[in-house]
Amino acid sequence: MEIASISGDTVLLLYHPAQTAADVGQQFTLMEVPERTEGLVVQVISNDSLEYVGLQQEMIQHILERRISRQTQAPVDRERGMGEIKSLKVATAKIRKRIQNNAWHAWDGWIPTRNVEISQIGAGTLLENIMPSAHLPIRSFVRLNESTPMQFDGPRLRTVNVITGVKGSGKSHLAKHLVLALSERRIPVIVFDLNGEYLGLPNCQELCWAQNLVLNLGEVGYRVLEKLVRTLYPLPSGQPSEAVFEHQLPIFFREREDYCRRQGTPLRIDIPYLINQNWEGGDYVVRAIRTRLGVIDERNLFWREHPRTVDQNITPFYATPTPPSFQIIYDSACEGRPVIFDMRDIPNSLQKALASSMVNFLQDICEREADGQGRYPFVFFEEAHFYVEDILNLITRGRHIGIASVFVTNTPQELPEAVFRQLDNLFLLALAHKDDIRNVSRNSFTDQDTIESFATRMPERHALIIGDVTDRYPLVVAVDPLPADVPPSGRTRSTWDRFTT
Amino acid sequence: MSEAYPVDQLQALLDQLEQIISRRDESSEVTYRVVTPDEVVDDSPTGEEPEDLESVTTADITAPDVLDFVPSSPGPVVAVDCGIARLGETRDGLVIALRATVVTDVHSGSSVSLFRSGPIYLVNRYKAQALHQIGRHLGKPDLFVELEHGDPADAAPVRLKAGAADDAHQYGDRFRNWFERIAQRVAVISVENGTILFDGALTLRSRDTPSQYMEELAELASQRGNAIIAISKQSKLEIAGRSVRFWLDDVANRACYRPLTPMMRRLDSARSERVMGNVHAARFSVLGPAFRMDVKAARGQSDDEAIGRYCSSASMRGGYPDVLVRAHAHSYFTYPDIIQLQAEAGARFNLAPQSSVELGGIFAPFGGRFK
After folding, report:
1. For an interface test with B, which of A273, A284, A309, A312 has the most B Cβ atoms less than 10 Å from its Cβ?
2. Which domain does A227 fall in, by range?
3. A431: left (phi over 0), alpha (psi -120 to 50) or beta
4. In chain A, how many domains are there?
5. Nearest CA in chain A to B268
6. Does residue B261 sit at the A interface (CB-CB below 8 Å)?
7. Is A271 inside any structural domain?
């Protein structure tokens, strides 16, 4: 292997595949000889066949010879090296690190001469030099070079994480690994599961609104309700009804809190109570507000002081005399039982509303945790592109609030730019669409060439990981199979199944 | 928010009113009301304030579920009632007497406050001035009268508004209502964390009480943690074509209540807004009748809690709150009361009795005694 050229941070390496393998994602050291104390670490991002002078004439000659001659024989042929030139390849590599006296540093622009010794870097050496030491490791679920397990330092999975790839590339598979690994560390994990991908995870709490989950308005607070109204049935923007609602709703909550405090009872409040309040602004405004509250009440998302008889008959769950507590569910999540919000059967608009409302509530939980144990959650947003606009606040303020997010999407171009600008870790599986690649490349970790090269050449069950967990070094890893007790991801119903069973 | 009227100010208000409307220079002939020795008198109109809107009769609407009374910690209960007696009529006016009662039941016992106006001579030619004063006391000077242009606080009345007091009955009843509202204002601030019981309904935008006054009553009550509950024995309100007192027919022999406001809102939201608080049909004991019950809970309190506290605090007599019965017992006039008040009116207002026509003989024997 030889250096063909170095231009900017791109190194072209000429090699014969019989001599050296230089697959995409592999790393090499280029150590200046004879001292071998200065050098570079480069990573192959693509391979091309070698273009050389006379190639065209050579090919024309061979084709014409085969066309004209009926039989070609070489009774004496001692040109044994002939044709090997066609096997040569050019690997395009990116400079990742500089080596000085055997220590790896960030690359500062220094380049070696062509007089170098090129060696492949073993997995152990690579991890030793680039991976931050894992003070609070989470269980390993990826391997470098198919064999060397990698451990992530938990605290480096910070605020904004993205798992992206085309359909079937293994996003949910990777995400499930993360959910399980975090839960094992007793990190509270909340998953908004739009497709039922996460159902059946061992030890998880599967919750479905209006079936086995009703929220206690007194616990989740008025902002959840306000958000639901704003998302589902918004009052006319800038109109008195909107102003009255946003002004009076907190007041009614506060009055109710004061009353319950004076009575020495926990806060109990439901939507019928709010409907009965003295909303101001005239008949039109009052009707607009009450109508919206009534419609939300009909959806059975919130606990009621007096459950309707019809609801009790359908689901005895509603007949609880005391309001349910999400805090109990959250406490269980902190003990290693991830919460999966099953949103399969919920209309899209309600999915958005519930996700953003719950995020509001989780912020309140974080406020409490700030004064307590600091059990801040990891929130997974499956198909995040559907509702990310409604939770944008989480991206910009997540690190102040304490919530860490994992956005799982096959359409990264629909994620807001802020996601990639604030990105802490990227888990990239196969991508094909140029717009998606361009969007993913907006992160500050690496260049578009790297993303494009890896994303379009990613082997099955492999992922590129880059971000704080790899100290910004792009690593291509193999993802382990899921544990035996975890249902497989991406099971698709098909009419063809009946012919194969 | 103006302050509640203290009791001593009520006395001053009555004196002031008497100066305006009872000025008499010459003697008038009066036809006194005839009462029989076993008669009790309360000329208050029955039922709540009539509503202008027609009932909506959409029958196909789901009624809210019936709810049971949920006991809670008891609190004080205050009941207010007011009676009027028309003592007699003159050529240019009407003589009335008013009685309001505030009964307070607290843990330590019961107390009764009586407000008794004595005879009031309502002279027709001062009707505008008198009703103007009442309007002012209720916070709306032009409630019954049209005013001169200018600052409404200082403007003089020009003429009566149509429907303000078209006849002697209405004229007298405007005073009765005013008197009752003042007693209610005393009642709502007399206890804390309790229940204030009114006789009637909590109708807003009524002909005789400004909404603002009612809302101030509620605010004063709420500041002290009191809920206002009004119980109407003879409600005229119909919802989905059914009178309120028939809205518990599907649950006979059960003490319970049913919120009706949700239905009213669906049928006619404007109409539901004419009630301060929420309307319920309520039956307070197993064999008792159903009443209309309007509930205006204290700030932060739910209707159910207000109702629960009331039912845990008030004893019932035949399915009706005993405290309200006692308030009523002190607000009507007996035969001796009437004749003494008539005597006092004659002396104070220089009235010469005129014999009334006895119609009993004409109708005898066909119920002539009652004519």
Report:
1. A273
2. 217-298
3. beta
4. 3
5. A287
6. yes
7. yes
Instruction: For B181-232, give the DSSP string.
Output: HHHHHHHHTSSSSSEEEEES--BSS-SSS-HHHHHHHHHHHHHTT-EEEEEE
Cβ contacts (< 8 Å) between B270 and chain A: which residues? 283
> Residue A39's closest CA among A131, A101, A130?
A101
Neighbouring CB atoms inside 10 A of A186's CB total 13
Residue A274 and residue A181 share a domain: no
Cα gap B180→B198, rounded to integer Å: 10
Q: Do A257 and B265 touch (CB under 8 A)?
A: no
Residues A356 and A487 in one domain: yes
Same domain, A179 and A113: no
Within 247-266 of A, beta carbons closer than 8 Å to B belong to 255-260, 262-263
Is residue A272 domain-resident?
A: yes
The shortest CB-CB distance from A259 to any of B278, B298, B304 is to B298
- B51, B239 Cβ separation under 8 angstroms: no
Task: Clarify whether residues A158 and A284 are in a common domain.
Answer: no
For the domain that residue A169 is a member of, what is the CATH number? 3.40.50.300
Residue A314 lies in a domain: no
For the domain that residue A37 is a member of, what is the CATH number?
2.40.10
Q: How confident is the model at residue A404 (pLDDT cuts 50, 70, 90)?
A: very high
How do residues B56-112 score in pLDDT, each as one tens digit? 455 557 788 899 998 888 999 999 999 999 999 888 888 999 999 999 999 888 999
Q: How far apart are CA A242 and CA A226, in angstroms?
A: 10
Interval B303-316: pLDDT, tens: 999 999 999 999 99
Residue A412 has pLDDT above 90, yes or no: no
Task: Give yes or no for A306 touching B (CB within 8 A).
Answer: yes
User: A294: distance to nearest CA of chain B, Å?
Assistant: 9
Of A344, A366, A343, A365, the C-alpha closest to A354 is A343
Chain A positions touching B269 (Cβ under 8 A) are 283, 286-287, 290
- Cβ of B300 within 8 Å of Cβ of A309? The answer is no
- What pLDDT was estimated at residue B1? 42
CA angle B179, B184, B188 (to 5 degrees): 160
Beta carbons of A343 and A206 less than 8 angstroms apart:
no
Burial B276-301 (b: 16+ CB within 10 A, else e): bbbbbbbbbeeebebbbbbbbbbbbb
Tokens, residue A285? 């405004």
For B:130-169, CB contacts with A below 8 A are none
- Top residue of A249, A263, A297, A304 to mutate, by most chain B CBs within 10 Å, is A263
| DSSP state for residue A386 in the 8-state scheme | G
- Among A263, A281, A298, identify where a domain stops: A298
**Domain identity same for A183 and A238:** no
Whole-angstrom distance, CA of residue A225 vs CA of residue A295: 12
Do A349 and A451 fall within a single domain?
Answer: yes
What's the DSSP call for residue B261?
H
- Cβ B304–A309 below 8 Å, yes or no? no
The pair of three-digit structure tokens given for residue B262, joined into one six-digit string: 């949700």
Tell me how long chain B is: 371
- A206 and A231 housed in the same domain: no
10-residue averages of pLDDT along chain B (371 residues) = 56 72 67 78 65 49 85 92 91 89 91 89 86 87 86 80 84 90 92 94 90 94 95 88 90 91 83 87 92 95 94 91 93 88 88 76 67 51
Residues A239 and A291 in one domain: yes
In terms of CA atoms, which chain B residue is nearest residue A310?
B65
The CB-side HSE value for A224 (13 A sphere, CA atoms) comes to: 23
Q: What is the dihedral of CA B158, B159, B161, B166, to 10 degrees?
A: 160
**A378 domain residue, yes or no:** yes
Task: Give per-residue pLDDT as tens, A365-395.
Answer: 898 888 888 999 999 998 888 877 767 777 7
